[in-house]
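The instructor's notes for this session suggest beginning with a concrete chain rather than abstract definitions. Hand out the sequence below and ask the class to guess, before any prediction is shown, which regions might be ordered.
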Amino acid sequence: MEIIISSNSGKPIYEQITSQIKAMIMSGELKTGDAIPSMRALAKAIHVSVITVQKAYEDLQRDGFIETTVGRGSFVSARNKDFYQEEQQRQAEAHLQAAAEIARAAGIPLAALVDVLTLFYEEE
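After discussion, reveal the predicted structure:
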C-alpha cells in the first residue's frame, strides 16, 4: 500500500492518508477483508507520527471504511462503498445547492444550468 504525503498540500496529513486509503478501497485496490498496515508500520513507512496515522484510522473507522480489532489489526470493512457513495452524494448536493442559489440570484435559467451540469458530467 503506497501513501504519498505532500507537504505542499493544504490538507492535513491525516486527511491525506484518509482520502488515499478511501480511494484505494473504492477503486478495488483494497478489497473487503484486506488487512491494512498497523499504525506503527504505516507511520514508519511514510515518516509521520503514529498519532497522525491513528487520527486517520479513527476517521476511516468512524466512516465505516475499516474495522479494527484489538490484537488482530485493521481490515477493510464490507460496508464501505455505501458509506462512501452517501458521503460523495452529500458533497455533490451541497455544491449543486450553492450553484442553484448563484444561478437563481443571477437570473440564469434552470435549463442553462442543467446544460452546463450535463456537459461537466459527460466530460471524460
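Then share the key points. The mean pLDDT is 91. Residues 80-106 form the longest helix (27 residues).
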